[in-house]
Amino acid sequence: MTRAAIIRSKLLLLCLIAAISTAHAEISDSLADHRLQEVVVTGTAARARITNSQIGAERLELHTLAATPAFAGEADILKSIALLPGVRAEGDGAGGFEVRGGTAAQNRVMLDGATLFSPTHVMGIFSTFNDRAINRATLFKGPIPAAYGGASSSVLETALAPGGMERWHASGTVGILAAKIAADGPIVADRLSLAVTARRSYVDAFLKMVPKYRSTVMNFYDVTAKLRFTPSSRHTLDASFFISHDNMAVGSIMGMYWGNIAGSVNWLARAGNRLSFATTAAFTSYNPKMAMDVMDMNQEMKGLVNTGSINERITFELSDLHTFEAGVRSELVRVKSAEWTVGITHERDVRSLWENAAWIGYNGQMPDHWEVAAGLRLDVAGRKPYVDLQPRVSVKYSINELHSLKAGGGVSTQTIHSIRSGTTSFPFDRYALTSSAVRPERSVQYATGYAGMTSDAAFDWSAEAYWKTMSNVYDYRDGCNTFSDIDIERIILGGRGRSYGAELMLRKNSGRLTGWISYTISRTQTRIPGINDGKWYDATNDRRHDITVTAIYSLGSAWNLSASWIYLSGHPLTAPDVKYEVSGITCYYYSRRNSYHTPPTHRLDLAATYTHTGRRATYQWSFGVFNAYCRYNPYLVYFENDPSKPSGTRAVQQSLYGLIPSVSYTLSF
Amino acid sequence: MNPAASRIIFLTLAACALCSCSKELDFEYHYIPPLTVIEGELTPAGAKVGITLTTPMGEPMDRTRLTDATVTLTDLTTGLTTALTPDSDGFFRSSAGSTAGRDYRLSVSRGEATYEADAGMFSPVTITGMEFSWIRMPYDYVAALRVQFTGNPADADACYWIKLLRNGEIYSWGTLDSRAADASGTLTYIAITSRRDTDEEDDATVLFEGDVMTAEIAGISAAMRDYLEALANDSSGPAMFAGPRCLGYFCANSPATRSVTFHPADLPIQE
Fold it and tell me: Is the peptide bond before B44 cis (omega within 30 degrees of 0)?
């Protein structure tokens, strides 16, 4: 299958989804009884942003993000964080997010200590994160704390919500695309609790009503479970489990299937008042598979990423002002870059890697308004082995209680490379593991910034600038694609990247109207020998301007309104300069990589929720309009023959979404 | 679900017709100087070389053949060199035959530039079957064309170039390698052609009752396969000619052909 075929199949499936399904809105955790918290939390959050010594760290306010409009009304962490400065969504129809010039594959997404790969449903339209399951998320987009590795761009750390220890709660949501349920409560009061969520799409039901689509299979599900055991006030033991799976198929002719299975055990123990231990054992298995059986010709393509890790983190609070951390991690990674069965031919490319790390960290306050978060991480990977010492430092200077200056820098590496087959990530992208031929990806980032707020925390604002260099960034050789060779090391080339930019943010935190405006100006470039004559070129994920405006308005105790508007400069595009014929077929010649740009993307999304809080239960109606002024944004640009035109050729922009309304109903008790 | 929810969901579904669209872009292409394009093919019947220049994207395809070149073909096994001369259509031709198993070099000199490429000659394949079938896709039935053939056992490393012609005009092409062979050594190539609902079909791909589809299959080298695959992957293709930058290829092959007539009403259906 060629890259063009991959893009076409992806486009086809996405168009199918867009055409036959519609939106629905689902609620966030911002039910009426949470609204009072929101005022408190935002005030606290504003102060936290000023006082946090870690530059580039965003503790996500999930209830606020969940109140923003979302595609098809499905509250989605991965989509919502694109509203933050320095972060943006990959694009329509893709599920990943990009941070400061990095690609989605350079982020590490963790759930209770387990790493998730390509955590998306329906080719990226939704993330696999059920918003009802998550209670905490932190995005490290700047210098990453020493405790985290395996990501050259950012780390998104999320945690499943534990079950309540006092009473049971349950909720159910019905939308047009999917339904979900959540339940949590004590098994043994004050000792053992359970939280479970499940979500299942029912697009199939609608497909079966349309004769044309009757043989089409399209469904996904995800399930989370968290068991918390608290034998004493000093010990907490969590066992977390996550599974997600997507099935997309056309009868028995062709199908695509992918999903994550992950689990972890986290044991948090305190020894005295100042010493604590966090022990985590986690595993993940990611299994993408494509199969085709047309006219007795069978093809099957599979991949696999298995990881198993154990992590120990020791925290010692010397005093209220000084905290030390140390930790070790050992992880075994097994990557099946590809396994192909074509007729009787069977090929596979499997690699394993053992990666070990140790780190130390310090977080403390100095005299004269200074605060430091510093760490040193040592990564040792492979048999060769690759040894990398990674210093990471953030320094904050508090001008006063309302204003602070921050600066930082850090090195981080990544041993699992995801090689994208298109301009965005895709569940069937191939993975390459660090080996004698493929070096670990390495990034060095420097950042500096200022944060300030008003004395009542009603407004806060920030400005950050960064400079990042990346080495051992891999891409397919010119003319190669996912299926060019089973040995991925023969079809990829390594090079360098650089990114620099500035991020501005203004937030309003109190009153009926809350929200924020963010603006990012940045440039990202790549240089890979063998591509573009070895010269620097704008990276595919380069976006010069990125603006978001988000507003949430409370219309009393029942109604909440929200709106978000985004603007993104066009992304670089490799377009032909001239054309010619080979054996009668029109071919194009591309003199430079990414030397053109697509039109810009902009969109307005609206949402409204009505919440009724009763004695025993709360119900909520959520309504949304995605892309309210029906802007057709570029998803794919291609060139084709058009005999009706004097030139015989035309450039075509394919868009995925027009205006998409949504609605959902949630009952909680 | 209560009736109110059903109504709201139904209305939302109905309002969702405004999804997905394509539109033409007003595109400003960059100017680059024209590049030389060489298409050289050597078969047992003789050699044919066409030389053209690239065409700016905003202009109609310029198929004017350049004849101000010196073109020679050398049999690297015997050392014999043959000069090709242009015909009335602008193609450089030679009727000198070629032999499977031998290597050949095409040399093109134009102005101060000389371009050279080598190619090995492969034996002809045997086409064993060719048939259409409807297969079910999410949006419609499409006609899949299956072509089966066997290569020559002597050409174990051969790849294959499959050209499909509709009523004698090029329709599409693709490549295969030995991985597509079954236990008996038969290779299968499948091309997706026309939709059943021809009103929805693009003129470039639609097939009508009585159209004759011809498969022309030839063994090619792995380098030629890589070149063709790169073209299909939006690349300009690896440079096949030594010398200054030029586009195109040189291929030595022995094409086999077979035809089938398209009768949409008679095709079997695969669900």
Answer: no
In angstroms, the CA A175 to CA A186 distance is 28
Which residues pair with residue A229 across a beta bridge?
A192, A237
Helix (H) or strand (E) holding A38: helix A32-51
User: What angle (nearest 5°) sits at the alpha carbon of residue A534, between those of residues B223 and B232?
Assistant: 35
Report CB contact under 8 Å: A251, B136: yes
Structure tokens at A572: 């670089």
Tell me if chain A has a CB within 8 Å of the CB of B80.
no
Check if the interface score ipTM surpasses 0.90.
Answer: no
Q: Measured between CB atoms, does B135 come within 8 Å of chain A?
A: yes
Partner-chain contact A484 B25, CB within 8 Å:
no
| d(C-alpha A247, C-alpha A28), whole Å | 26
Q: Which residues numbered 165-204 in B keep a CB inside 8 Å of some CB on A? A: 169-170, 172-173, 178-183, 188, 190, 203-204
Q: Are A579 and B54 a contacting pair at CB < 8 A?
A: yes
Neighbouring C-beta atoms of residue B197, cutoff 10 Å: 12
For A120, A222, A224, A243, A246, the CA distances from A260, given in Å and listed in that order, are 9, 9, 11, 6, 10
H or E stretch at A645: none
Nearest CA to CA, how far is A252 from chain B (Å)? Answer: 7
Cβ within 8 Å, pair A652-B23 = yes
Compute the CA torsion angle A43, A182, A87, A285 (nearest 10 deg). Answer: 140
For residue A362, list its beta bridge partners.
A324, A374
Out of A484, A647, A650, name the one closest to residue B60 (CB): A647
Query: In sequence order, what E strands does A94-234 have?
Result: 97-99, 107-111, 114-116, 120-121, 126-127, 134-140, 154-160, 169-175, 178-188, 192-201, 216-232
Q: Are A381 and A354 in contact (CB under 8 A)?
A: yes
Dihedral sign from CA coordinates of A589, A593, A597, A598:
positive
Alpha-carbon gap, residue B26 to B28, rounded angstroms = 7
Spell out which residues of chain A touch residue B204, defining contact as CB-CB under 8 Å: 641
Chain A positions touching B54 (Cβ under 8 A) are 578-580, 589
Chain B environment of A2 (Cβ under 8 Å): 229, 232-233
Work out how many CB contacts closer than 8 A connect A with B: 235
Which residues of chain A does B163 touch, with a Cβ-Cβ cutoff of 8 Å?
Answer: 583
Cβ–Cβ gap A215/B271 under 8 Å: yes
In sequence order, the 6+-apart residues with CB closer than 8 A to the CB of B121 are: B42, B98, B99, B100, B101, B102, B103, B104, B252, B253, B254
Per-residue pLDDT of chain B (271 residues; tens, 9 = 90+): 344 434 443 444 444 444 558 899 988 999 999 999 999 999 998 999 999 999 999 999 999 999 999 999 999 989 999 999 999 999 999 988 788 889 999 999 999 999 999 999 999 999 999 999 998 877 788 899 999 999 887 777 789 999 999 999 999 999 998 878 888 889 999 998 988 887 766 677 889 999 999 999 999 999 999 999 988 887 877 889 999 989 999 999 899 999 999 999 999 987 6
Q: How far apart are CA A88 and CA A139, in angstroms?
A: 13
DSSP letters along A428-454, please? T-EEEE--SSSPPEEEEEEEEEEEEE-
Contact state of A582 with B55 under an 8 Å Cβ cutoff: no
Nearest to A307 by CA among A352, A343, A347: A352
C-alpha closest to that of A462 among A541, A520, A545: A520
CB contact under 8 A, B30 and A663: no
Q: Which residue in chain A is spatially nearest to B238 when comparing CA positions?
A: A479
Do the beta carbons of residue B136 and residue B192 sit within 8 Å? no
What b/e readout covers B61-73, taking b as 16+ CB neighbours within 10 angstroms?
A: beeebbeebebbb
Tell me how far apart the alpha carbons of residues A9 and A253 are, in angstroms, rounded to a whole number: 13
